[in-house]
Specification:
Helix 1 packs across helix 3 and helix 4 runs parallel beside helix 5. The longest helix is centred in the N-terminal third of the chain and has 26 residues. By secondary structure, the chain is α+β, with helices and mostly antiparallel strands. The mean pLDDT is 85. The relative contact order is 0.09. The protein has three domains: 53 residues, no CATH class; 36 residues, no CATH class; 85 residues.
Length: 187
């Protein structure tokens, strides 16, 4: 769904229709140098410019098509900006933050966007549950919701991305306590 931009003639006709009818106004519109005619032309161009800007702002309302506001999308959704990365890479990182179901493949894909390789994912502790938490008839959470997770990964020389990667994983895995081991636990 977009915003339709009509032709210059359509907008000019619409503006002229706002003026009163009569012989005086017809003379004004027939003279190309009259103030009324020049006013209509100027307002027509202003409306076309406004409609084009509305189309641009509509595209900026989604991070998948944003160009001007991509830094704002990152600041709000991620808590940091990636101004040094190309636009498509920035959109890819934003889309990983919007994932609804987290599994090992999703975590590996997130790591890949930062140039890392996940070698192992461990859940070293099992949470102690003696029943399920409920509110009314709906479960609040399953036992897997509050867990510790250890991510083993290879940085492949992208050590500068470690803090950004950890921040991103912490945002995505909100119900987990993640621990990170890099390059076999050596760094």
């Amino acid at each position: 769904m977009g915003i339709k931009i009509a032709s210059e003639t359509d907008y000019s006709t619409a503006i002229r229709d706002l003026f009163p009818k009569g012989e005086y106004w017809e003379k004004q519109f027939s003279d190309p140098k009259s103030d009324v005619n020049l006013f209509c032309k100027a307002k027509t161009q202003e409306i076309i410019r406004l409609r084009k800007r509305m189309c641009n702002l509509l595209e900026e309302s989604n991070y998948k098509t944003a160009v001007e506001t991509i830094s704002d999308w990152e600041r709000i959704m991620l808590g940091y900006t990636n101004a040094h990365l190309p636009l498509e890479k920035r959109r890819e990182i934003l889309s990983t933050n919007n994932v609804q179901i987290i599994n090992r493949i999703v975590i590996a894909d997130i790591a890949k966007t930062f140039g890392f390789i996940i070698t192992n994912i461990q859940f070293p502790y099992r949470p102690a549950f003696f029943g399920f938490s409920r509110f009314g008839i709906d479960s609040i959470a399953t036992p897997a919701s509050w867990q510790t997770i250890v991510l083993h990964s290879l940085t492949q020389g992208n050590d500068a991305q470690i803090s950004v990667f950890e921040t991103h994983i912490n945002n995505v895995l909100t119900n987990y306590t993640p621990y990170f081991l890099y390059n076999g636990g050596n760094s």
